[in-house]
Protein backbone atom coordinates (compact mmCIF):
# COMPACT_ATOMS: atom_id res chain seq x y z
CA UNK A 1 0.00 0.00 0.00
CA UNK A 2 1.01 3.58 -0.61
CA UNK A 3 3.03 5.25 2.14
CA UNK A 4 0.92 8.38 1.67
CA UNK A 5 -2.49 6.75 2.15
CA UNK A 6 -3.76 6.03 5.67
CA UNK A 7 -6.83 3.95 6.53
CA UNK A 8 -8.60 4.60 9.87
CA UNK A 9 -6.81 2.82 12.70
CA UNK A 10 -9.74 3.06 15.15
CA UNK A 11 -7.74 2.32 18.31
CA UNK A 12 -9.88 2.36 21.46
CA UNK A 13 -7.98 4.60 23.92
CA UNK A 14 -10.54 4.19 26.70
CA UNK A 15 -14.26 3.63 27.04
CA UNK A 16 -15.99 6.05 24.63
CA UNK A 17 -12.78 7.38 23.07
CA UNK A 18 -11.39 6.13 19.77
CA UNK A 19 -8.25 7.27 17.96
CA UNK A 20 -9.25 7.18 14.29
CA UNK A 21 -6.04 8.65 12.85
CA UNK A 22 -2.70 9.63 14.32
CA UNK A 23 -0.14 11.27 12.03
CA UNK A 24 3.02 12.30 13.83
CA UNK A 25 6.56 13.29 12.91
CA UNK A 26 7.61 9.86 14.22
CA UNK A 27 5.27 7.77 12.05
CA UNK A 28 5.36 9.94 8.90
CA UNK A 29 7.84 12.02 6.95
CA UNK A 30 6.16 15.23 8.09
CA UNK A 31 8.05 17.74 10.18
CA UNK A 32 5.54 20.59 10.45
CA UNK A 33 2.10 18.91 10.49
CA UNK A 34 0.77 16.45 13.05
CA UNK A 35 -2.86 15.32 13.01
CA UNK A 36 -5.24 13.25 15.11
CA UNK A 37 -8.86 12.37 14.50
CA UNK A 38 -10.78 11.20 17.56
CA UNK A 39 -14.30 9.86 18.07
CA UNK A 40 -15.98 10.52 21.38
CA UNK A 41 -19.18 9.02 22.76
CA UNK A 42 -21.43 11.41 24.74
CA UNK A 43 -19.71 12.31 28.02
CA UNK A 44 -16.27 10.98 26.97
CA UNK A 45 -13.24 13.22 27.37
CA UNK A 46 -9.84 13.61 25.75
CA UNK A 47 -7.11 15.80 27.21
CA UNK A 48 -3.61 16.64 26.16
CA UNK A 49 -0.60 18.63 27.35
CA UNK A 50 0.61 20.37 24.21
CA UNK A 51 4.26 21.12 24.87
CA UNK A 52 5.81 22.95 21.91
CA UNK A 53 2.84 22.34 19.59
CA UNK A 54 -0.08 24.59 18.77
CA UNK A 55 -3.42 22.92 18.09
CA UNK A 56 -6.58 23.74 16.18
CA UNK A 57 -9.47 21.63 17.51
CA UNK A 58 -12.15 21.25 14.83
CA UNK A 59 -15.62 19.98 15.80
CA UNK A 60 -15.96 17.97 12.59
CA UNK A 61 -19.33 16.51 13.65
CA UNK A 62 -21.29 16.52 16.90
CA UNK A 63 -21.24 18.89 19.87
CA UNK A 64 -18.33 19.31 22.30
CA UNK A 65 -17.09 21.40 25.21
CA UNK A 66 -13.48 22.60 25.00
CA UNK A 67 -11.35 24.17 27.72
CA UNK A 68 -7.70 25.14 28.04
CA UNK A 69 -8.16 25.15 31.85
CA UNK A 70 -8.79 28.90 31.78
CA UNK A 71 -11.27 29.62 29.02
CA UNK A 72 -14.30 27.38 28.42
CA UNK A 73 -16.28 27.00 25.19
CA UNK A 74 -19.42 24.95 25.74
CA UNK A 75 -21.68 23.21 23.26
CA UNK A 76 -19.69 24.04 20.13
CA UNK A 77 -20.05 22.26 16.78
CA UNK A 78 -22.82 22.82 14.28
CA UNK A 79 -23.52 19.64 12.33
CA UNK A 80 -24.32 15.94 12.45
CA UNK A 81 -22.67 15.32 9.08
CA UNK A 82 -20.07 17.31 7.17
CA UNK A 83 -22.39 17.00 4.17
CA UNK A 84 -24.78 19.49 5.71
CA UNK A 85 -22.15 21.76 4.08
CA UNK A 86 -22.32 24.41 6.79
CA UNK A 87 -19.18 25.68 8.55
CA UNK A 88 -18.39 24.37 12.01
CA UNK A 89 -16.77 25.72 15.19
CA UNK A 90 -13.09 25.27 16.07
CA UNK A 91 -10.81 26.32 18.93
CA UNK A 92 -7.20 27.42 18.62
CA UNK A 93 -4.98 26.49 21.61
CA UNK A 94 -1.38 27.65 21.74
CA UNK A 95 1.78 25.78 22.72
CA UNK A 96 2.54 24.96 26.40
CA UNK A 97 -1.16 24.74 27.28
CA UNK A 98 -3.32 21.81 28.27
CA UNK A 99 -6.73 21.29 26.72
CA UNK A 100 -9.69 19.03 27.29
CA UNK A 101 -12.45 18.07 24.86
CA UNK A 102 -15.69 16.63 26.29
CA UNK A 103 -18.38 15.25 24.01
CA UNK A 104 -21.90 16.54 24.52
CA UNK A 105 -23.18 14.28 21.73
CA UNK A 106 -21.43 11.61 19.65
CA UNK A 107 -18.58 13.63 18.12
CA UNK A 108 -15.75 13.37 15.63
CA UNK A 109 -13.00 15.88 16.40
CA UNK A 110 -9.90 16.80 14.41
CA UNK A 111 -6.77 17.86 16.29
CA UNK A 112 -4.46 19.73 13.92
CA UNK A 113 -0.96 20.44 15.25
CA UNK A 114 2.21 22.26 14.28
CA UNK A 115 5.40 23.12 16.17
CA UNK A 116 5.10 26.49 17.89
CA UNK A 117 7.13 28.52 20.40
CA UNK A 118 5.38 31.86 20.90
CA UNK A 119 2.21 31.69 22.98
CA UNK A 120 -0.91 33.19 21.49
CA UNK A 121 -4.37 33.57 23.05
CA UNK A 122 -6.76 30.63 23.02
CA UNK A 123 -9.49 31.52 20.57
CA UNK A 124 -12.91 30.30 19.48
CA UNK A 125 -13.10 30.25 15.68
CA UNK A 126 -16.86 30.14 15.37
CA UNK A 127 -18.69 28.82 12.33
CA UNK A 128 -19.64 32.38 11.41
CA UNK A 129 -15.94 33.37 11.39
CA UNK A 130 -15.24 30.87 8.55
CA UNK A 131 -14.79 32.60 5.22
CA UNK A 132 -16.85 30.65 2.68
CA UNK A 133 -15.25 30.73 -0.76
CA UNK A 134 -16.48 29.38 -4.08
CA UNK A 135 -13.48 28.61 -6.30
CA UNK A 136 -13.16 27.52 -9.92
CA UNK A 137 -15.45 27.22 -12.92
CA UNK A 138 -17.02 24.31 -14.83
CA UNK A 139 -15.89 20.92 -13.51
CA UNK A 140 -13.33 22.63 -11.32
CA UNK A 141 -15.85 24.21 -8.93
CA UNK A 142 -15.41 23.62 -5.22
CA UNK A 143 -16.47 25.28 -1.98
CA UNK A 144 -13.97 26.16 0.73
CA UNK A 145 -14.51 26.91 4.43
CA UNK A 146 -11.51 28.89 5.62
CA UNK A 147 -11.08 27.94 9.29
CA UNK A 148 -7.54 29.28 9.76
CA UNK A 149 -6.38 30.98 6.55
CA UNK A 150 -3.05 32.83 6.29
CA UNK A 151 -4.92 36.17 6.50
CA UNK A 152 -5.92 35.31 10.10
CA UNK A 153 -3.00 35.86 12.52
CA UNK A 154 -4.51 33.70 15.32
CA UNK A 155 -1.90 30.91 14.82
CA UNK A 156 1.89 30.78 14.48
CA UNK A 157 2.06 28.09 11.77
CA UNK A 158 -1.24 26.30 11.21
CA UNK A 159 -3.47 26.73 8.18
CA UNK A 160 -6.77 24.81 8.21
CA UNK A 161 -9.48 24.62 5.53
CA UNK A 162 -12.41 22.40 4.55
CA UNK A 163 -13.14 21.71 0.87
CA UNK A 164 -16.32 20.32 -0.72
CA UNK A 165 -16.06 19.07 -4.30
CA UNK A 166 -19.24 18.03 -6.07
CA UNK A 167 -19.83 14.93 -8.17
CA UNK A 168 -17.73 14.81 -11.34
CA UNK A 169 -15.58 17.77 -10.30
CA UNK A 170 -11.92 18.34 -9.47
CA UNK A 171 -10.19 20.29 -6.73
CA UNK A 172 -6.61 21.26 -5.97
CA UNK A 173 -6.76 21.55 -9.73
CA UNK A 174 -5.08 22.49 -11.97
CA UNK A 175 -2.47 20.64 -9.92
CA UNK A 176 -0.50 22.93 -7.62
CA UNK A 177 2.30 22.43 -5.14
CA UNK A 178 3.83 24.38 -2.29
CA UNK A 179 7.12 22.60 -1.54
CA UNK A 180 9.79 25.27 -2.03
CA UNK A 181 10.72 27.73 0.69
CA UNK A 182 11.20 30.42 -1.92
CA UNK A 183 8.90 33.33 -1.16
CA UNK A 184 7.51 35.41 -2.75
CA UNK A 185 7.35 32.80 -5.59
CA UNK A 186 6.35 29.75 -3.52
CA UNK A 187 6.05 28.68 0.11
CA UNK A 188 6.96 25.35 1.71
CA UNK A 189 3.91 23.82 3.37
CA UNK A 190 3.38 20.19 4.25
CA UNK A 191 -0.23 19.09 4.06
CA UNK A 192 -2.62 16.40 5.29
CA UNK A 193 -5.98 15.46 3.81
CA UNK A 194 -8.75 13.82 5.84
CA UNK A 195 -11.40 12.62 3.35
CA UNK A 196 -15.11 11.76 3.53
CA UNK A 197 -17.55 10.93 0.74
CA UNK A 198 -21.31 11.08 0.38
CA UNK A 199 -22.73 8.48 -0.03
CA UNK A 200 -20.10 6.82 2.12
CA UNK A 201 -19.34 3.92 -0.24
CA UNK A 202 -17.84 6.44 -2.67
CA UNK A 203 -14.21 7.00 -3.49
CA UNK A 204 -12.05 9.71 -4.99
CA UNK A 205 -8.68 9.64 -6.69
CA UNK A 206 -5.78 11.71 -5.45
CA UNK A 207 -2.46 11.95 -7.20
CA UNK A 208 0.69 13.22 -5.47
CA UNK A 209 3.61 13.85 -7.81
CA UNK A 210 6.73 15.93 -8.27
CA UNK A 211 8.13 17.50 -11.46
CA UNK A 212 10.84 14.83 -11.74
CA UNK A 213 8.33 12.04 -10.90
CA UNK A 214 10.61 10.74 -8.13
CA UNK A 215 7.27 10.78 -6.29
CA UNK A 216 4.23 9.85 -8.37
CA UNK A 217 1.40 8.05 -6.59
CA UNK A 218 -2.24 7.89 -7.58
CA UNK A 219 -4.41 6.67 -4.73
CA UNK A 220 -7.96 5.39 -4.46
CA UNK A 221 -9.19 7.19 -1.39
CA UNK A 222 -12.20 5.90 0.53
CA UNK A 223 -14.43 7.39 3.21
CA UNK A 224 -12.41 8.23 6.34
CA UNK A 225 -8.98 7.78 4.71
CA UNK A 226 -6.15 10.27 4.97
CA UNK A 227 -3.55 11.31 2.41
CA UNK A 228 -0.22 12.79 3.43
CA UNK A 229 1.37 15.32 1.11
CA UNK A 230 4.99 15.91 2.15
CA UNK A 231 5.80 17.53 -1.22
CA UNK A 232 4.42 17.73 -4.73
CA UNK A 233 1.26 18.45 -6.70
CA UNK A 234 -1.88 16.92 -5.15
CA UNK A 235 -5.04 17.09 -7.31
CA UNK A 236 -8.30 15.33 -6.35
CA UNK A 237 -10.83 13.90 -8.84
CA UNK A 238 -14.38 13.02 -7.75
CA UNK A 239 -16.41 10.41 -9.69
CA UNK A 240 -20.01 10.99 -10.80
CA UNK A 241 -22.59 10.40 -8.07
CA UNK A 242 -20.46 11.27 -5.04
CA UNK A 243 -19.67 14.45 -3.13
CA UNK A 244 -16.19 14.80 -1.63
CA UNK A 245 -15.29 16.49 1.63
CA UNK A 246 -11.79 16.96 2.94
CA UNK A 247 -10.13 18.75 5.81
CA UNK A 248 -6.69 20.15 5.02
CA UNK A 249 -4.01 21.06 7.51
CA UNK A 250 -0.93 22.87 6.23
CA UNK A 251 2.16 24.17 7.98
CA UNK A 252 5.74 25.04 7.16
CA UNK A 253 8.51 27.48 8.05
CA UNK A 254 6.49 30.54 6.98
CA UNK A 255 2.73 30.86 7.42
CA UNK A 256 1.95 31.85 3.85
CA UNK A 257 0.02 29.76 1.26
CA UNK A 258 1.80 30.59 -1.99
CA UNK A 259 1.37 27.78 -4.44
CA UNK A 260 2.85 27.03 -7.87
CA UNK A 261 0.63 25.55 -10.59
CA UNK A 262 1.94 22.68 -12.73
CA UNK A 263 2.93 24.60 -15.90
CA UNK A 264 1.73 21.67 -18.08
CA UNK A 265 -1.85 22.15 -16.87
CA UNK A 266 -2.05 25.83 -15.97
CA UNK A 267 -3.57 26.56 -19.40
CA UNK A 268 -6.97 25.31 -18.22
CA UNK A 269 -7.30 28.46 -16.12
CA UNK A 270 -7.08 30.56 -19.27
CA UNK A 271 -9.18 28.26 -21.48
O1 LIG B 1 -8.90 23.28 -4.41
C1 LIG B 1 -8.32 24.24 -3.86
O2 LIG B 1 -8.56 25.40 -4.13
C2 LIG B 1 -7.21 23.99 -2.87
C3 LIG B 1 -7.59 23.07 -1.81
O3 LIG B 1 -8.31 22.00 -2.30
C4 LIG B 1 -6.51 22.59 -0.87
O4 LIG B 1 -6.71 23.33 0.27
C5 LIG B 1 -5.08 22.64 -1.30
O5 LIG B 1 -4.66 22.02 -2.23
C6 LIG B 1 -4.14 23.46 -0.51
O6 LIG B 1 -2.88 23.48 -1.08
UniProtKB/TrEMBL annotation:
Domain of life: Bacteria
Signal peptide: none
EC number: 5.3.1.30
Any matching Pfam family: KduI
Enzyme class per UniProt: isomerase
Gene Ontology biological process terms, A to Z: inositol catabolic process
Functional note: Involved in the isomerization of 5-deoxy-glucuronate (5DG) to 5-dehydro-2-deoxy-D-gluconate (DKG or 2-deoxy-5-keto-D-gluconate).
HAMAP family (UniProt xref): IolB (MF_01673)
Family: Belongs to the isomerase IolB family.
Protein name, entry field: 5-deoxy-glucuronate isomerase
Lineage, uppermost ranks: Bacteria, Bacillati, Bacillota, Bacilli, Bacillales
Amino acid sequence: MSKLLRKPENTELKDGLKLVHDVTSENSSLEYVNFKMIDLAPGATYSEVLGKLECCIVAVTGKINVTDQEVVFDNIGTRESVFEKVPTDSVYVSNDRTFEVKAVSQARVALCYSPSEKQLPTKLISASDNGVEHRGTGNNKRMVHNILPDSDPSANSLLVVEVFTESGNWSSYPPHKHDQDNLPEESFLEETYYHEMNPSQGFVFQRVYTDDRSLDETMTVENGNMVIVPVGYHPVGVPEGYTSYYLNVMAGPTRVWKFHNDPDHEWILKG
